[in-house]
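Supplementary Note 3. Input sequence used for the single-chain structure prediction.
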Amino acid sequence: MASVRLNALDAAWLFTESRATPNHVGGLLVFRLPEGAPRDFLRSMRMDFRQFKEFAAPWNRRLKYPLTKNPFPVWVEDRDIDLEYHVQHSALPWPGGERELGELVARLQSQPLDLSRPPWECNIIEGLEGGRFALFVKMHHSLIDGVSGMMLLQRAMSADAKKSVKLPPFWAAGSEARTGARRASLAPTFANAAAAAAEALRGQAQSVPQMLAAFAKMLQRVGDPREGMVVPFDSPRSVLNGRVREKRRFATQQFSMERLRTLAAAAGCTLNDIVLALCAGALRRFLEERGELPDKPLTTGIPVSVRPKDDEGGGNAITFIVASLATDVADARERLDAIRASVQHAKAHVQSLPRQAMLQYTVVLMAPTIITLLSGIGGRTRPMFNITISNVPGPDKPLYFRGAELLAIYPASIVTHGQALNITCESYAGAMNFGFTGCHSSLPSLQRLAVYAGEALAELEAALLKPAKPARTAATARRKPAAAGPKRRRSAPAA
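The predicted structure, written as discrete structure tokens, is reproduced below.
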């Protein structure tokens, strides 16, 4: 393949990486073993994987740093990929429950990827109770974003269990992404880099006025109580926004989509508004118990995909909006209303931008955060926003991998200085799966946050859904008084 340039956002994930802040994303995929599977099912699967030495993009890409005046690396094809490194095998200690699985995933997520190789790993995890196993796949964020990552993993799965047995693993499935051909470039010389930059500037010049207008509109709305607009870097200081260390924590939660959609319909809001409200309710209780809930509402950065539906390419195609989580509001219904209003206003000022302008807008919006990380002051200044919360759409129907049914997908994401917690959820086959990734030292007892999300859901249901009244049947209406008889003693109420 020809070399592929990294855009500014992709490169930022490389330049801001450190030992304490590796910039890779991951996915925990939990499967049910096929009925009658032999004891060596997973060992045989790994051995079979070694036979697939053909690699599709972007799994065959590694970084190359040119020895020219062009400072940006490019993606080149690696023709000598070592599957012994990229595909590993782990076993959980007994009893192989969710706690043990979370601890293993946290350790795997803590380890940086080797950037001299194609930046991805797959870990086969056995010993999970209930006849289950898991795959944990992690990939560098410069290589891929969450939306395209899920699309690429689906290449190795099928809605038909029998057909899935013959499918190759995800790195060998499919062909060169269509966007790869569109983004291919000449050799990374200074002259070619300059020509590419000039071409990009010509294409982006028309979008600059729209981008500037969007920023102007945002600033005009700030401070207007009717608008509820959140300005970046106006977030309160909190325990979520200090310096982080290398070790991670990981917790999961799962809710049925039916429950979430019922709430969204009752409140007249979007499904994502409900997701944000659950996270807000959980965060409010989690921080309040620790005596660390700020008086001002926490804010969230929400990645919004701008990738076309048929685009399975690598790199990142996202923009950001910043909204309030209304954690200063005690009432669950009022908190949801405040979140919905804030999100609506945040979306309004970017929706009119063309896609190219959105990339510019995202780079400009994120530039201060990138500068703080590059300069080493990340986590020591006021945060741009307090937490990132992402909602990634996944498959609607059950999928199978090597005959094994996929039960759940739990995302694991990035923690960095100034952002000690990341919450990412992904829908799949009638369920919403939450992955909570946090700094081990900053956020002890992270599992409680997952539990409190469940309690926040119950709180919203109590506030929004009226309990059904028992139907008054005709037989009940016509019931005659019972004949007089001996009086019974009334039982005492339970203590």
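The longest strand covers residues 24-32. The CA atoms of residues 65 and 73 lie 4 Å apart.
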